[in-house]
Amino acid sequence: MAFMHRPAPAFPALLHYEVAHRILMGYMDYYYRFKLITKRARLRFEARDWHGTQADARSRITLYREEVSRTSEQLARLMEDVSGDTVFWTRVRDAFAEEIAHFNTRNIAETFFNSVYRHSHGIGADPAVMFVLRTGTYREHRGLSAISYNIDLEGRSLDVVVRQVLDYFPFEVEWDDRERDIALVARRWAAHPASASTRLEILQSVFYRNKVAYIVGRLLDHGRVHPFILPLLHPDGRGILIDALLLEADQVVSIFSYHRSYFLADISVPSDMVDFLNTFMPSKQVSELYNAIGFEKHGKTVFYRELLRHMRKTAKDPAERFVTAPGIAGMVMYVFTMPRLNMVFKVIRDTFAPPKQVTAETVKAKYDLVKRHDRVGRMADSYLFEKLALPLDRFGPECLRELVDTATSRVTVTDDCVLLSHVYVEKKMTPLNLFLQTADEAMAQKALRDYGRAIKQLAAANIFPGDLLLKNFGVTRVNRVVFYDYDEIELVTDCNFRHLPEPRTPEQEMASQPWYYVGPRDIFPEEFPGFLLRSGPHLTYLRQQHGEIFDADFWNDLKQRLLAGEIMDVFPYRTGCRFLQ
Known about the structure:
- The chain is an alpha+beta fold.
- Helix content is 41%, strand content 14%.
- The chain has helices spanning 15-39, 41-46, 50-78, 86-99, 106-121, 158-167, 178-190, 249-255, 270-280, 286-292, 296-313, 360-372, 397-406, 432-438, 441-460, 506-510, 528-532, 537-546, 552-563, and strands spanning 148-152, 199-203, 207-209, 212-221, 224-233, 241-242, 323-324, 333-337, 343-348, 383-385, 388-391, 411-413, 417-420, 423-427, 430-431, 463-464, 473-475, 481-483, 490-491, 496-497, 522-523.
- Helix 6 (158-167) crosses helix 7 (178-190).
- The longest helix is centred in the first third of the chain and has 29 residues, at 50-78.
- It starts with 14 loop residues before the first helix and ends in an 18-residue tail after the last helix.
- The model has no long low-confidence stretch (mean pLDDT 91).
- It holds the Pfam family AceK_kinase.
- One of its GO terms (molecular function) is phosphoprotein phosphatase activity.
- Keywords: ATP-binding, Cytoplasm, Glyoxylate bypass, Hydrolase, Kinase, Nucleotide-binding, Protein phosphatase, Serine/threonine-protein kinase, Transferase, Tricarboxylic acid cycle.
- Residues 320-574 form the Isocitrate dehydrogenase kinase/phosphatase (AceK) kinase domain.
């Protein structure tokens, strides 16, 4: 759908309109291709084409930057004899705003305009030209058509309602046992307080990710809102089946977590969808929900607005300044935050202390890998900002000094702002090592169990964290353990997991250095306990719960399954919620 290069308009006075039109056509091309990918998610699910689903998820992430780059190149040719100043670009923005005023995706189009402008000019947010602040109400746009099927529950049997819900989604393949699943859902629903609800609203969009399709809705119960989620599976050799009914907010928050890959869902009005989801996940930031439904670039725009609001609200609070984030200082990244902000900022240092041997470009590549990879709920998503300007007066002196001293090439300090040329922004978590220092025995054991599960689930997704130290894992608000230090991650299939050779002589046994050959990708899981935890109850408990992670055979078995093309199941809800385990 990319358009042909055309000569500049015959009327130079209308060049601003032609530039706005080119940006609009670039956005329309991006949005068409975005929709095409999401529309074929159902076909992938029906065909059990799980590799195709993952490939689509990866290509959709790169799609945005590709279209922004292509549009910027076209503008460069169009404007090669024109020096576009702020006055000119303000006219471009106004012409663009006029054209998208009634778009269902106006807010996404505004973000695309911002990206093209920044890509062409290499600068940070410019409120004189860009759509930095929202152009309408906070919710940005209200669609004219319904996004959900609405069902009145008064006086109706639950099995009839469930059957009606499934009728809305006619898949082109057989069910495993549709009536059995209807009975299972109705029985669980009837046993839950949400059965007293008076109305069920089911989103018309099905949410696809990896090997699961989710029917998503909400129950309205006299002012209270409950989620209503039906995860669907399509196992080998069987038809489609319902795996669970999820009615609790804490079950659903994990499904839409910022630690998971983005959904493939055919969505017409993103802002309406975000509003709908936010009613039963009120703890989620609006920016997170845009990420979850695949509009991560607009999620980044919304986060920036959230950050501006936070700084305006706390402007008179002298304690709310940027400070070094709690935890052991990283050798690769300097991390800072604000005490009441739920995000951290990570800047790559100019030099890395031994034994780190990676480069800044390697670190960037690892973060890009994580962005495109299946994060299985165990790797933190991040926003990459280039040319991010933050107010100078909001920096504590120690934080500013550390930035300037250790990341000089990426920091510019002016009279009123600190300009960061490359910074990652992630959700704030409590480092696992700090969490264990203050947790009681029950909470410590829960965290250690989840730490072991995190390592196993990352391995199932073909990720070896590299550095398994507790300080590189964080504990979230809901006490979930998540990995967030990516400079040493590797694909499991690229690693060589070995058992430690048995020494044959006293000299070998007493040697301070390995007496055997160690290749660059050789990993000895038996050595993990020595640097993860000191001997004591925590290490003993971890061995009891997840001792296999210290065995090369465990890793090699996973490696062989991954090399054979297996995509392993990692469910974002508890095993106990499943109907047919």
